[in-house]
Here is the input.
Amino acid sequence: MSHDSLIEILVNRGNELLQRPYEPNVFTGNNEADALLNDISSHPHAFVLACVMDRQIKAERAWLIPYHIKSEIGGFEFEQLMTLSPSYLVSLFQKKSLHRFNETMALLFYDAIKLISNKYDGNASLIWADKPRSASIVRRFLEFKGIGVKIATMAANILSRDFKIPMQDRICIDISPDVQVKRVFIRLGFIHSQATNDQLIFAAREFHPEYPGIFDLSAWEIGRQWCRPTKPDCANCYLDGICPKCFTT
Here is the structure.
């Protein structure tokens, strides 16, 4: 099957995910933690702070951090977070072993609270209010210490695809250079096995310039569920029989 046909299948799957009605996102598998992260109307800072924490550990563990802090301090109102000192957060992160890099991430958590306070008057939803351009949202996430392009574009993609936040465009929502996504692109023959993250990003821009991130979740779910690093479960993947990898294994 040609690249164009495979791209069309992934784009169609991406559009299905984009157009489906809003449902609460399963970020962690913990109902209370996920309820906090999905409450972007009353606690938008929980989502933003979780994005800051999503670094060099499993995503589910990183996204549990706001819930663990809420449990420790008895709430997650922004006013409560503003009272937390850097030393207290470092102590809490270390005591609970919240992250692989507890001191560093505790200070990033503190810095993020300060940025939300100083730039957005304590209301993190202003990051995506009033139907901004996708570039504006990505740039605003990049202003948080510790957030790079991967997490900034992931955050914009979640806001658009899952939370249905209106934006003027999606042109600057890139595909995330996630290991699952990259593996799928390699096995589909879209990029070569030694391709850089930049090559992955520009391939997605080439294939679907109006919304490169359309591939993000469709490729990720294939990589997570079926296209595993070893012993891929090709028989149950919806690309079985048309993926080029099927004919070489």
